User: What shape does this take?
Amino acid sequence: MRNYMIVTLDISAQAALEEILASSGEGKSLTDIAAARSALAVNPADVIFVDYNLLMEDCSLYTDGMSAIWQGHSDVEIVVLVMPDDIRRAVDVMKSGAVDYLTYPINPGEVQVVLERLDKTLMLHTKLDYLRDQFWNEDALHVVRTDSIAMRDAFDKVRQMAGTKTTVLLTGETGTGKSLIAKLIHTHSSRKNDPFVSVHCGAVPDTLIESELFGHEKGAFTGAIRRKIGKFGLAEGGTLFLDEIGTISQSMQIKLLNFLQERTIQRVGSDESIPVDVRIIAATNDNLWDMCEKGLFRKDLYYRLNVFPIEIPPLRERKSDILSFAEAFVSHFSLQLGKDIKGLHPKVLDAFQRYSWPGNVRELENLIERACILEKDDRISLSSIPQELFGLLQGAECSRPDISMAIGRARQLVVDKFEKAYLSELLEATHGKIKEAAKWAGITPRQLHKLMSRHGLQRRSFRPPEKKGTGASQ
Assistant: This one.
């Protein structure tokens, strides 16, 4: 139920509004602004219907009249009542913040249209109030602590839209924390008590992705021995996180587009359309617009997913956050391993600040986990991190820099040299096993392949020689 206030000298207009508003809330009628302000102080209203001339009483500007109402009551919505000849004035008032207007004499049909618009506006206010009251929950406080302007902007966007049904597209490099942001959005939304279901689209074969997402009926294909509800069904009422959305096939893109348009799904082997209440959060490390231009991704699907984009910057662009991330990981793994590691040696932190982190936060997490396993002291020392990470950078710092080239080029040469040394050591340790090496580095196999190609590294160069007698070529 809404609380309404009617401020006009027109008795017939008061009576008409009171009758129409009675079914949707409680109303109070007054005849001057001063009385309205006094009444608002005692009993706040959601909406005030106010005559334009009364609004302008003792004011040279209509903005002053509205400010007088909003002083101490900034959440109240203003609907202006005007004569038909004064509609232009009403439009000017709306430009300054009024939500709508009505003309005399009061028309019930026009009032209903205004009430429908108000419902949407007030619903949004309710959700935003909910977010303001709940942000941030205790578990998220360590996540949102950041000195990075770019990350603060990302978290501000989370605050703005978490409580809505809006579809979100998270973009950023692999390992930047897109899945963490998706969970953050869910846990700070009105859906937080309903399921959060995550699907890594790139990890599901094209032949199974439709069944994985939408489910299937028994006997729909060979091996379908029982009915499967699918991820959409499991996420009913909650959030479905589609990671690496750029990897899905063209046919799957069409089916996902259909869901976003119709909000229904069809299980494999069934023609029945099933309504589903699911909020979609998609993520990608690809440039979807470039894929659209190349014909690899549907533009209409891109527009449907890109309703509210949030870009997550790479770790190299928010190095001020490295210390807080590292300390959080050290605390976590130290407790998990039953150790008492309290922090990082200053030279370790210095090396971390100089490194480019191609694997981003995930690479940092994996490196800290490895260091915590190796560390025997009460803080992470140089001996517990890959020597290339510290040694190469230390050598670059001690040698005389080549000032004949631009600083960006000089920096890139150092980074390239380290990356090649790091990858060579990594592939040597894993005997050229791409999946294992990528997991250890905290990056995807595809990203590892790209880095290897950039530095001219061949997988076969790191495979152990075949033993004689196996029949393999030597």
Observations:
- The CA atoms of residues 292 and 299 lie 6 Å apart.
- The chain has four domains: 2-132, 164-313, 317-393, 400-468.
- The first helix runs from residue 11 to 21.
